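Researcher: Next sequence.
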Amino acid sequence: MKVRKFSEEELSNLLERGAESKALDYKKDIDWDDKKQRAELTRDILAFANTEGGYIVIGVSDAEAGFEPAGLSGDTLGKLDTTRINEFVNNYADPPINAVLFKVAFKGKHYAIVYVPPFAVIPHVLKRDYDNILRPGDLLVRTDDNNSARIQRAEDMHALINRCIAKRRAEILRGVSRTLEGRMPAERSADQPIYETEHLKSGRSWGEMNVPAEFSAFREAWFHPVDFIGELVRPRKLPGLLDECQTKYHGRRFPYEGRGADRYQITGGIEYKRAGPVGHGYEYWRFLSNGFFNCRESLWEDTDPRFEGTVGIASLLEFACATLLFLGKLMERTSNEDGFIYNFRLGGCKNRSLKVDLQGRGPLLPGEYVCREDEIHVTGRYSKQLLTDQFEDCLVSIVDECFRLFNWSGNEEQLRKDIAGYLAQGRIV
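Model: Next structure:
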C-alpha cells in the first residue's frame, strides 16, 4: 500500500461537516493504555467496515452548540499509529481490517484520523470477547442514528446481505475483466481518500445552491481512476474532452447544460450548476483534470405533484446508463489501464414508491414497491473492456441493487431481459 499524507484541506472538510453520519464519527480523545477504550474503537472500526467505510476523527469534543475541534495532546498522539491499531483490532476481527491512521496539524492543533475501508466481499465478524463490548459472532454496523451497534433489525441485515451480493457480483465482473486483459487482480487503491475529498467538495458546491427541502432527494453518480495519477488530461483540454464524451438519453444530452445554467472554470477543472424547480429541477456536475467526475440532480419526480414521493423506473435506468456510457467514452479517450471506480447513489429515497414512468414510455416492470433505506449506494470497478463487452451486466448490477432495496421481488434474469429490451428500443444513444 502506498504511503501518503492526509492534507489540511481534507481534515478541514471533515471538521466543517459539524455532524456525525454513518461514514463519519468524532471522538474527543482516546487513551491507548485503557483497553476498554481500545475495544470501543475496535467496535467502531468494525461497524464502519461493515457499512460503507469512513473516517473517525479523534480530537473533536461534543459541545452544547455541536462539535468543537479541540485537538490532542502530544502524549496521546504519540501512542497512536496504524500498526498498533490494526494489531489490536485484528485480534477481534475476522477477516482482518486494514485501517489507516493519519496525523494532521491544523490551525495549531493536532488530530488523528482513522480511515476505515469498507469490507471487500465478506463482512467482518467479531471472533473474541471483551467485557461485553465485543462479543463473538456479532456483526456490527453503523445505525440510522449514527451509532455502532450489532445487527438487531431485519432491515439492517437485509442491507448488509445486499451489500455482500453487490460486492460479490462486482468482484466476479472485475475478475472476468482482468482475466480477459491478461492481468492479475489489483488491490483497493490507497489513493481513495483523495477522491473522497473531491466528492466532499462537490457536495459542498451542491449545498451552496440552497436546494429547497422539497427537492432535496437526488440521483448521483461519481467516478475516478483507481489510482491517483495527478493529471489524466490537461485542464485546457477538458471542454473538448467533455464534448467528445457526451451522450444522450431520451433526447437529453449528458452531461447536461440547460438554459439559465452557470458553468465555471475552477481549479483543475469545470463546474456546472443549474438552479430552479423547472423541468429536471436542480442539476450539478464537476469534471476535473485528475479524472474525477461527479454529477447530481434532484429527482424530477418531485417537480410534478402526480409523481411526488416516487422514483421512476425508466429515469433511474436512463441516468445509470448515461453515466456508464459517458465513463466508457472517457476511458476510450484516455490512457488508464487500471480502470475507474464508479459510484451510483440515490438519496432521500426512504418510503418512496418505485413506479413506472408515465411520460409516454410505458412500464419497464409492473407493480409498486417502497424503499426501506434513506440512501442507496452501489459501487464497482470498471475497465474499458468490461464496459465494452459486458455493459448490460454492469447496468444490471446497479439497477438490481436499487430494486432490492425497494422490496422488488422479481428475479435478475427477468430484469436483464427487461433492460436489454428497453435499451434495444433506442432510447439511449
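Model: Residues 155-424 form one domain. The chain has two domains: 8-151, 155-424.
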